[in-house]
Design goal:
22% helix; alpha/beta; 15 strands; 7 helices; Rossmann fold
């Protein structure tokens, strides 16, 4: 596990040119947004030595993706690893976001890789996700906004409730960015924060989830992972969740005081979660799901015209019926 991807160590200046770069083992790729015309989105693609599955990742809250070096040796990971640069960061254009449309950017990166990197894949349907810190918060939301996309998800020291995080950010390190990125405070619009919080829709969970957190993490308090686990258990999803809490681990660094053995155990459990899930989950023919601004399944998609709203959908794929409880207009697409 590369803990540098889950902190604030990889930052960079805004790029002045947006051109693909290719090396033997690592590429920097620009691709288009399916929801925001004109946006140039970037990802670093780590190519496996042998064919594998897609593993998508996003970086930490303040971070960006690592640049590529033509002299880098190949990774020992058995995955085509997509490191997605969130919109508005060093490599991608656009306005910075917080679990809004930036998660569709991850989806778009996966669709690009399915087509353009098919020669590196065992199959194009098995997709995994892993992220930590801000990327862990992305993981909780991706797991419930795209419930049947991923075969397994890893969320490390992640945020599951952004209003709670805002209120407990005594230093203001993250609050000052949540306000412009979300567009308000949680007191001004609680639903806007709920629409970005994975815990709000924990009942949507379908893919096996591994999450880990240090009990004394100062920047993303452990209550964030505990809350998602509690919500998932209350929704009858306990069998899908493996939670590993590390006692007395966490300082201003998420893994402060963690031993090499503990970090290796996180990596082992994350990999084992993927190994046990070789295929993506099947969406039930009939059900109800929470819509956090939008909902993408392999059978249908719903997008609220205001993605800061929360609603519900009851669907029956056999009859083709959909009942959408939406506080605004919406678009429904049956695939």
């Amino acid at each position: 596990m590369n803990a540098d991807f889950y902190g604030d160590t990889v930052r960079g200046e805004r790029q002045k040119t947006y051109e693909n770069r290719y090396t033997q083992w690592y590429d920097l790729i620009y691709y288009d947004s399916s929801v925001t015309p004109g946006l140039k989105l970037a990802m670093r693609v780590d190519k496996p030595v042998r064919k594998g599955h897609i593993l998508a990742s996003t970086h930490g809250w303040h971070m960006t993706i690592p640049s590529i070096n033509p002299d880098e040796e190949p990774s020992d990971e058995p995955y085509l690893h997509l490191h997605v640069d969130m919109r508005g960061r060093s490599f991608s254009t656009g306005r910075q976001d917080c679990n809004g449309l930036e998660l569709v950017d991850v989806y778009d990166a996966i669709q690009y890789a399915r087509i353009h990197y098919a020669d590196y894949l065992e199959d194009t349907e098995t997709i995994y996700y892993e992220g930590g810190s801000g990327g862990g918060g992305n993981g909780y939301a991706l797991a419930v906004k795209f419930p049947d996309l991923f075969a397994a998800v890893t969320a490390l020291c992640g945020i599951s409730d952004y209003a709670l995080w805002y209120r407990n950010d005594a230093v203001g390190e993250f609050r000052d960015e949540m306000e412009p990125w979300i567009g308000c405070t949680p007191d001004e619009d609680a639903m806007a924060y709920a629409s970005r919080s994975g815990a709000e829709a924990a009942g949507n969970l379908m893919a096996p989830l591994f999450c880990a957190h240090g009990s004394t993490d100062e920047r993303v308090p452990v209550e964030q992972s505990r809350l998602f686990v509690e919500r998932a258990e209350a929704a009858g999803k306990a069998a899908l969740v493996e939670y590993f809490e590390l006692p007395n681990v966490g300082t201003q660094s998420h893994w402060g005081r963690a031993t090499a053995q503990q970090l290796a155990e996180i990596e082992r459990r994350s990999e084992e979660n993927r190994r046990r899930a070789p295929k993506h989950p099947q969406l039930p023919e009939r059900g109800e799901l929470t819509v956090l601004g939008y909902l993408y399944t392999r059978r249908f998609r719903i997008r609220f015209h205001d993605i800061s709203k929360v609603g519900r959908v009851a669907y029956d794929l056999k009859t083709g019926s959909f009942r959408v409880d939406a506080p605004c207009g919406y678009t429904l697409e049956v695939l």
